Amino acid sequence: MEVPVSIRDVAHLEELLSEPSDAAVEAMRQATGDVIVLGVAGKMGPTLARMARRAMDAAGRSHRVIGVSRFSSPNQQRTLETFGVETIRCDLLDESAVARLPEVPHVVFMAGRKFGSTGNEPLTWAMNFLVPSASTP
Question: Among 49, 72, 93, 135, which one has the highest count of C-beta atoms within 10 angstroms of its own C-beta?
Fold first, then answer.
C-alpha cells in the first residue's frame, strides 16, 4: 500500500486503516470458519471488523465476519452492515443473550471499558473482568 501525502477526510482515513495487510489476507485464507468481534462498536472495533471483512474477501473466502455490540449508535450498526459485516445486538453482561450468540471458531474480544470509568467503577470491573471470564470454560 502506498502511503498518501494527505488524508482527504474521515472516510479516506477509515479506508486506509481498514486496508488488510498481506498477512491479514493470508490469515483469512487459512481461517476455518466465521469470525466474531465482540465489542465491535468501540474505538477500534469497526475498523478491525471492516479490515477482517476486506481480508476475507481478498482471500476469496465466504466466511462471515460478525460484529457484536449493544450498538448505542444505530448509525454505527448500519455502517458496519454496509461494509458487509453482519451485526448482532447483544449486551455482553446478559448471560442468556451471550448464550444465543453463534458458536464460531474465531473470536476477537474487543469489549472492555476504560474511558468514562470514573464514578462507575462497578461497571468497569464487570466489563473488564466478568465478561471475559464468562467465556472461559
Answer: 49
